[in-house]
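Q&A log
Question type: sequence-to-structure
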Amino acid sequence: MKIDRHGKAKILTPDEIERLFSEGLLSIRDQTLCAVMLYTACRVSECVTLKIKDVYDSKGRIRPELIIRKGNTKRKLATRTIPVLDDLRHYLKLYQPKHSQEQYLFPGRWGHGHLHSEYASLIFREGCKRVDIEGASTHSCRRTALTLMSNAGIPLRIIQEISGHRSLEQLQNYLEVEPSQVRGAIAALSMLTPPKDKGSKIDSVDWDNPKLSAE
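Response status: OK
Response body:
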């Protein structure tokens, strides 16, 4: 868990997510900002550099897929397209992005440039603080989304396509193993326990007179 910005960002529970969006984040912009990160598993830097046209078409309709452009990704590896869930669509419908010269989805102060990653991180941390969520950062959205997909049995190669990680090894560092999963894995070893009280022919052999016992 992150303490003073050190350590891994915590995985958010459904209850924490509900509290964060209903009480912690105070504006539709802030809710939409965090919803994009949570429901696309994108990085905060990728989120704040989205353009309006990456999310809405020329008529203002929400696209079926959100576009994360190659130039805005961490290592500029590839453009990613992420299907827009109904949960995210809800916030995108309510959000009215302010049109600026550069047409960023989340414009910066006075409409210049885009919202800075550090300011987006501050918005998230302040929201978590209001509802008493400790150890979370914007990375929590990404880790939560990727871990939920992994726990749902989605193959890692498909999750990698969504996350944009360069390797499966990097992706695995994001995934959280829950204590219940460890207990379940150990419980599976019970199949190794020999059967009890079933008896066997060899148990009934009279070794002093093996022929008689066998009959």
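Response note: The chain has ten helices and two strands.
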